[in-house]
Amino acid sequence: MSADQPTIVATSIGFDPRGGDQYDWSPGPIFDLCVERSGAVGTPRICFVPTASGDNLTYISAVYSALGGRFLTSHLEVFSMPNYDDVRGHLLAQDVVWVGGGSVANLLALWRLHGWDEHLRAAWEAGVVLGGVSAGSICWHAGGTTDSFGPALRPVTNGLGFLPYSNGVHYDSEEQRRPLFHSLIENGVLPTGFATDDGAGLVYAGTELVDVVADRADSHGYAVRLENGRAVEEVLPTRRLR
Predict the structure, then answer these.
(1) pLDDT by residue (tens digit) across 20-66?
(2) Is beta strand 129-133 parallel, antiparallel or unpaired with respect to 7-11?
(3) What domains are defined for the chain?
(4) pTM (2 decimals)?
(5) CB-based contact 17:200 (threshold 8 Å)
(6) Which residues belong to the active site?
(7) CA distance 115 to 118
(8) What torsion do the CA atoms of 67, 68, 74, 79 make, to the nearest 10 degrees?
């Protein structure tokens, strides 16, 4: 099965730590939400896309360890060559595609070079739920703030644009994020948009925001719009997943 309409789950939510090393994870409730939205029957199929981390093998292995017990897990890598001959077909066969964090600027460049932007749009339009964290959240939008170019945050303005808004991630945990996001919207560098604290996520049906969720207390989503040339922030009602 597939989602009733194109669905994106854009988050600042990672995996749950299990108490071992930094890569010892379990799947948090955001994955259950993605699967529920997908309408999956039987064992859900999730493809992890680690482009933003340079296809880091430790990251990939940790994701398999976290997801493998409950989901039919695969991954899609670009280095040193794609690991599937038919990338489009593999994406279309999934229930959920989850994009990891890292460099959104590099991710966008590589996806466009290999035509994955078009493949992902086809999957989205076919009802495969697209999701991700950090870079894997910004990428679906028009743009956002990024540390892709160095420790001082800069704008990225060439997102895939499936969603015609800007996107702010790690809104409460990185001090540069909120003021720069406001400034870029005020100056017209980015369109108005939505932001997430760590632990929060945005659910879009088509291009409409239909739900804001969080896996922890005191995490929220925000709408940021322009009023009289100034960025105005609204805290959105946020539904706890647990």
Answers:
(1) 788 889 999 999 999 999 999 999 999 999 999 999 999 999 999 99
(2) parallel
(3) 7-240 (3.40.50.880)
(4) 0.96
(5) no
(6) 134, 170
(7) 6
(8) 80
